[in-house]
Amino acid sequence: MLARKLIINQSVQSLCRNMLKLNVQQQTNRTAAFLLSSSSQRPKRLCSTIVPALGNRYFSTPSATKSLMEFFDDSKNWTENEVKVGRAWKLDELRIKSNKELHQLWYILLKERNMLLTMEHECNDQMELFPSPERLDKVKISMNNLETVVRERNKAYHLLETGETGERPQRLISTCLGLRRIYRSSEHVLPPHMNVKWIKSRCIGFGGKAVRKFLLLYREKLYNEKRKAKNRARNEVIMLLRRNPNIDRNTLHSKYPNVNIDKLVSDDKTRGHYVPKIEG
């Protein structure tokens, strides 16, 4: 019996040694194959690549460097008062691009924005003029348009797959002052009926004499602002008609859609303080 146990233990140990040698050999072969393939496909140097865009527009992906000078503009632009740059990216140009190109363009714009903000801060510290500050606006417009395109694609995908937009659900809620605002739902660890802290922060009632007085004054303020804007637009139309009687009505309708221009044409204020000449 003892001899049989010794034989079984020896066989198990030899089997384990063979399996260990086999695993080590396989791992070594895989490592060698990976190193060989990566060395054959690895580029000799890191350089910037040009990605084709719409028409003659291109955007370049800079080289992968870790220098802090990437946060600053080119040194030849430091003494310039104006830097010539292109316009912002339009929605139509971004809609025809693939997701990979949009991903690359997003990080290019992000890097450009960081560089411009650094240069603006440095110019303010040195009390110098920041050249071409409109570059920040162009980058901001491009990033907003890119987010709009990505959101459109996400909505289309979710509508096709699930029948929903995939956006965060939102609803109107009342604050403690009785004002209505849009609340966008977010994910929580606990469900709503178990999250006591969330319930206490959201279930806030409003009422009382002070709140009613505040709402009355607030609505009066909104009404006065709306009334003043309407009167201001009406007076502007009257002055335009008084100075230019033959002005195009369609242009006025498009610029002042809330003003009844046909009624103002025959108004006394539009005619002015003079008596028209009657040819006899």
From TrEMBL:
Instruction: Keyword check for Ribosomal protein, yes or no.
Output: yes
Keyword Zinc-finger among record annotations? no
Question: Which residue positions does the secretion signal occupy?
Answer: none
Pfam families the UniProt entry points to: MRP-L47
**Listed GO molecular functions?**
structural constituent of ribosome
Q: Where in the cell is it found?
A: Mitochondrion
Superkingdom, natural source: Eukaryota
Q: Which PANTHER family match?
A: LARGE RIBOSOMAL SUBUNIT PROTEIN UL29M, RIBOSOMAL PROTEIN L47, MITOCHONDRIAL-RELATED
The name on file for this protein is Large ribosomal subunit protein uL29m
The scientific name of the source species is: Glossina morsitans morsitans (Savannah tsetse fly)
